[in-house]
Structures are given as structure tokens and as C-alpha cells.
Amino acid sequence: MRFLIPLVILGLPLAEIAGFVAVGREIGVAMTLLLVFASAVAGIMLLRIQGFGVLRRVQEAARTGNDPGLDVLGGVLIFIAAILLIVPGFISDLVGLLIFLPPVRRAIAAFLRRRMTILSSATGFYRSSRRQSPGPQSSGPQSAGPQSAGTPREQRRGPLTIDLDEDEFSRKTKDEDDPPPDRPPH
User: What is the DSSP letter of 164?
Assistant: First the structure.
């Protein structure tokens, strides 16, 4: 395993050069260069098309409160496949095209997922689809009680309103330095 990495680092460029020579002999230099250029353009286009699809799935998973870990891993594999297509060489193009195929990508993602831990956490970029009316939130359909129907994420978050008493909050500027009378200074 220790000698495998240097072998790949040295052997892959040599194999790519040998591939250029073999393909160049068969179809000519101009067609070889055209194939290399076409594979780079294809890599850019596939990255754009499939990358936006993965981004949409990750956003949807985050919006619904699901784990986007597998979609993120698929996005990383799409990025690697696009880079392999953009880099000149026929062997890297072949590997990149294989990774772009969804069954191959899912198999690689499942293999990697068994060998690594993917952690994901919720972000603060959640926007409720319900409109909130100004004023007190203690009554009406906006209250977060057991009878309110919302998404599972809204039900986990608890009430959306924090009710402060007057002694807990004040807009007076003279209270900024003085603690409330019933609380000790910190």
C-alpha cells in the first residue's frame, strides 16, 4: 500500500502519454486534440448540469430536515468526475465518465459511506412557509402547541415566540449598566 501511491503518481502520467501516442497514431494529431478538447467541454457541461441538480437536492433535504449526507457525497463524486474529464488524458476521461454514471456513483458512494462518517448539522437558514402576523403570538393558528400542524422541523423547534416580562427586558438607556433590582450583579 505504501508503494501504491508513488506508483500511481508516476504511472498515471506515463499511461496517459502512452494513450495519447496510441490514439494519435490511429486517428491523427488533430483529431486527438479535438477529442481532448471535447472531453474538457463535456466535463464542464456535466459538472454544471449535474452539479445544479445535486445542489437542489441538498437544499431540499436541508429544507425538509432530512440528512443531505449522501447527496453531498454524490456531489463530491460528480466534482471529481468532472475534474477527471477536464484534465487531458483518455484514461482519466474513462474513469470520469464511469463516475458520472448514476449506478457506478451510487456504488462508490455506498462503499465510501461504509468507511467514513458523514456528519451534518442544521443551519440557521430555515424559512417558514407560513406568514407570521405582527402582534402577540399567544392565540390563533400560529401558536406552537401539540394541536398545531406544521412540518416535523417546526414541531422539533418548539415555540417561535419568546415572551419576556417587563423586568427581563427594557428599552430604557439608564438600565444598561444597572442590573434589575431582584438580580445580583454578575
Answer: -
Q: Are 39 and 47 in contact (CB under 8 A)?
A: no
- Which of these, 112, 29, 117, 25, lies nearest to 75 by C-alpha position? 112
Question: From the CB of residue 151, how many other CB atoms can be counted at a distance below 10 Å?
Answer: 15
CA angle at residue 109 from 104 to 113, to 5 degrees?
155
Provide the residue type at 17 as one letter: I
Compute the residue count for the chain.
186
Q: What is the DSSP letter of 138?
A: S
Long-range contacts of 7-14 (CB under 8 A, 24+ apart): 12/91, 12/92
Tens-place pLDDT, residues 110-133: 888 888 776 655 554 544 444 444
Distance CA 93, CA 81 (A): 8
Contact 32, 24 (CB under 8 A): yes
